């Protein structure tokens, strides 16, 4: 006992006895001032955090991912914050205990500990505050991207063989070869998906589409696009790109999947490391020679299906007519037709679809007759298959549909074509009826696309409004266009990154449709004679800066001119005025600031697209200049609808489709009063608008598909669904869905920087909304407010639940958001979700939404 006493310094015994503490490290005395300091520092810390989150969010919008250090820092801040809140809660108790001007406490131990905590936390917070981040985010490199796979028969065995080979350490390069249409890409896609499923030991799986007209740089660009943190490499030389690739891949175990090699490629020239490091290279090719030149460690032949497998696939493809089994007679003939396809999956698919609707014996007999009498003789398998595939082309009902199909071959291999675009081209080319419905619809175009997709001549790209051609089918189209290889075709395709100059082997005299898409041409300085040219696709060239005087000199029949996506193009030559037949002009996503005066001479123009350009001039005179204009797109350009433009637009008698920007609330109101004009609006961007109240009429704006609200201060957004008496119904309005109110077509809404709104319950009036982005609007507390929502659904029983069709939801920088919608747990179609920097959104909602992501 005595020993123990001796070990305690006197002053402590004294202070312990009276509950006071007088030394210079007096936590108790400093407690209050430390608490105040702590509070200030925490506020500063929170501000720093908010600033950082703002920066992070900008980076994340570009597709980058926040750094681990940033994540760690943010979570430290969060935990400090919650500790601080605990301290605050205990504050009144602790300060209440203080006595003797704050030098002593009634409960010394507790106060001492408390003071100690406050002081330690202060140090910690100061330390955290001092942390500075120069870089906050980096690019996410996903391990692999899932590929879609169609119905297959008998593929599993091959996938198994390939997979076993890849497990073998001695096999680094694997070649898959076989004829076009045999299913090589599908096999490669299965391998890709297997890497994805198995969380294997590879760092990254890179898929590259090679195709015929692609060269080294094209391959490098795809690899760098997948691997690199920024786009700074874009303008580098081939050598520089190679060393970049080499640098990155050297540090990884990678799988490189090259689809469709046409000839040997020198991997080291691309930058792919050559030394052994467990990495794998798998490619597909039509030729065994490529396998040999590439010095594969193993090659696998992708063979046609056995007769049994072929028959099975054919049955699945044709469907009811034979698989029902009740038509023995047809079934027997079907076996003969299937046999004609030689076990080639592509042919079985295409011919199978052509026969799917044939229910009489006569039709099947006719098919056998046609397939038997094919007169073309070709040496190789590939060439032999084209005539067989041509059977399905011949089965197309009429010349217009055939033209529509052949037109698709203008796009580069593997190119995904927007349906809407394709249809506009077809209209101008005169393949389909140019008369739109009153609502601007072009159902005939969609009808033909559907027909070609069902015939397996076009592939529907899932979840997008795009289609593409199988490369063999595309070859067939070009082959048909060239009169079965006997002469030069009138369709000319010179697209891709290897084209840097206008090729000099183009026969401009005979060409009707010309495609120079996605080239690297910088300057066009020729002046060709093109008596029959009707379509010129010159879009998506990243380098094109100049089109010289002379180029458009003689193209008297040109109807379609697409210059969109040439992001460096600033000017158009004046002589564009020579294009007297022009109907379609797409300049969107160019840098063009002002339009040539001569443009106004193009009296036949029916389609003009200036979206996302810098064009800012007033469009006065447009009505007189383009009396036939049906489509005018101005969304996201600098052109704003004002009184004068509104007046002009009213004089465009045939205008059916309009996208526009509006900054003035009174203009918005007035335009909705002009029936014909309002109903043509497909896209509307309200920007920089300040108004106590904005009314959007579901009837007037019945065709609205895309709405953007940007930098606006609007206190009330009101949806008017009944202002107009029901007029006499036009045929389009008898559609059953018109019975309920709402923006039926509205599928895409983006809201940025909106002030004055606490909820967006009016979105209930967009029952078919697919894509919603809301960001940077700190006053928004709820997307859909339950009470308001319920009261809307009460009045309109056919508006049931919010967001029944929503596929993609993106919420960011909404600092007051606490609720999305009451039924967030049961959104049936939601596939893509991103929720960022919505600090008040309860964790369970945010987590649930993230988990729901499929
Ligand atoms: C091999 O790959 C691993 C990654 O899996 C990497 O860490 C290592 O540096 C690589 N080694 C060589 C010699 O490239
Ligand atoms: C016009 O070009 C833009 C940009 O390339 C494209 O998105 C759009 O579909 C084109 N419009 C049509 C209808 O061709
Ligand atoms: C242009 O088209 C017309 C009509 O189809 C055709 O008769 C003529 O031969 C074509 N001109 C050339 C140079 O091919
Ligand atoms: C928005 O309006 C303000 C004033 O009304 C103006 O100064 C500003 O330039 C406008 N911003 C844009 C992007 O138009
Ligand atoms: C939340 O909204 C209120 C007004 O509704 C606003 O004053 C406040 O600044 C918002 N909070 C944040 C963190 O932005």
Task: Outline the structure in words.
This protein is an alpha/beta fold. Among the domains are: 20-139, no CATH class; 156-301, P-loop containing nucleotide triphosphate hydrolases (Rossmann fold); 325-452, no CATH class. It contains 27 helices and 29 strands. The protein has a 15-stranded parallel beta sheet that branches. It has a five-stranded parallel beta sheet with strand order 6-7-8-5-9, sandwiched between helices. Strands 10-12-11 form a three-stranded antiparallel beta sheet. Helix 10 (267-270) links the parallel strand 7 and strand 8. Helix 14 (328-340) packs parallel to helix 16 and helix 17 (381-394) packs across helix 21 (471-481). The longest helix is centred in the N-terminal third of the chain and has 35 residues, at 27-61.
- CA-atom Rg in angstroms: 34 Å
Structure summary, number of beta strands = 29
Report the CATH superfamily of the domain at 156-301.
P-loop containing nucleotide triphosphate hydrolases
Number of helices: 27
CATH architecture group name of the domain at 156-301: 3-Layer(aba) Sandwich
CATH topology of the domain at 156-301: Rossmann fold
Largest sheet properties: 15 strands, parallel
Domain Disease resistance R13L4/SHOC-2-like LRR: 511-694
Coiled coil: 28-62
Protein name: P-loop containing nucleoside triphosphate hydrolase
Keywords: ATP-binding, Coiled coil, Hydrolase, Leucine-rich repeat, Nucleotide-binding, Plant defense, Repeat, Signal
